[in-house]
Design goal:
The structure is a homodimer.
Chain A: H1 9-21, H2 28-35, E1 41-42, H3 43-49, H4 55-67, E2 71-76, E3 82-87, H5 89-92, H6 94-106
Antiparallel strand pairs in A: 1-3, 2-3
Chain A binds a DNA duplex (20 and 20 nucleotides) through helix 3 and helix 4.
Chain lengths: ~120, ~120
DNA sequence: CAGTATCCCAGACGATACTG
DNA sequence: CAGTATCGTCTGGGATACTG
């Protein structure tokens, strides 16, 4: 009950824009879908699971997801290093929202419509 | 029943990525939210309604939305020209999906979490 | 293993001017 | 009114090499 729920076209666009910015980045969705369902993966496991990603991009996108509060990073202080990544509770909540988008995309009329 | 509903992390990420690509572009959401609810607007009305947009960007984003099947463009052959824009049925369907995203964003824990 | 550090480039975007 | 046409900038991302 604490949020203001009346949106103008502008505030709604801004709100959704801010939300989508969390997902912007060539590899974010790939990372997210590797971690959905409560999975926990090491840096090297993500690197292997996501085809074509470089170490630079992997760490960059992970860092952004981390500061945004979507991914949690856990360091095990040992040699050789071990770092694990998993979704936060809020990050897991993304799943149904992305599913809504996916469902929408599937509804797309394929050919050129006759009318309307 | 015609769609394949089993997703791997990769195919799901690709699917959502493809869907989000329809929304990519600095002004697309602003345009969309002007047109949600079945509203029909002329080029110049959109230009006035969306603060800061240039003619170049407005037409560019509108064209993309049009070829993607989200926006419908209607030309009235008269002088001076009159062109109207409105959402397609599929475009209107975006509304609930974007609402899911917005709701997710509102759920975001604001401060630094104590635990988990 | 899990990162950093550089260099580079395509393409998205903005500013501005012009036109059927 | 509803667009085109140019030009310049900026930044996300790729390639590659190095390190605690």
């Amino acid at each position: 009950m604490s949020k203001n729920r009346s949106y103008t076209p502008k505030t709604a666009a801004d709100g959704v824009g801010a939300a989508l910015r969390f997902l912007e980045g060539r590899w974010k969705l790939s990372i997210l879908f590797q971690l959905f369902g409560g999975k926990t993966l090491r840096f090297s496991e993500l690197e292997k699971a996501i085809d074509g990603i470089s170490q630079k991009m992997l760490i960059q996108q992970l860092r952004q997801l981390e500061v945004d509060g979507i991914v949690r990073r856990t360091v095990y202080p040992q040699v050789p290093p071990k770092v694990e990544y998993e979704l936060t509770d809020w990050g897991q909540e993304l799943c149904p929202a992305l599913d809504a988008i996916l469902t929408w995309a599937e509804q797309r009329p394929s050919g050129k419509p006759e009318k309307s």
